[in-house]
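User: Structure please.
Assistant: Input sequence and predicted structure:
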Amino acid sequence: MIKVYTSTVIEAPADTVWGRIRDFNGLPSWTPFVADSRIEGSQPPDRIGCVRNFRLKDGGLIREQLLTLSDYDYQCSYSILESPMGVDNYVATLKLTPVTDGNRTFAEWWAEFDCAPERENQLARDIGQGVFQAAFDSLKTLMRR
């Protein structure tokens, strides 16, 4: 099992950032790589166990299930049910922590998963930089507006 970890500081209060990312169906509004998303079975996007089904801009389809959501801790976790990435047992957590000096947000995103050993380094880069950091960069731009 490998672990990918990415963190950043966002120049906005944690409440504001959480308001943007809390919606489990909201990826198209704050990430640069998701074209569209829907919650299966017409469930609310904050119901534990709901499944989001989204299409990437490159055409890939991914299904993920919400495992935890805490407004108190500004944290959510989810698992990948189906993906073209070739990962198994994928569980990710996105967590925000208020930075009181300047009313900023420390954001962390990590994932643990299994994959073929020869793909570990490439997937770690793709997920850490191509997904987590790209999403954080997009979020930072949106928060500056």
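The chain is about 25% helix and 45% strand.
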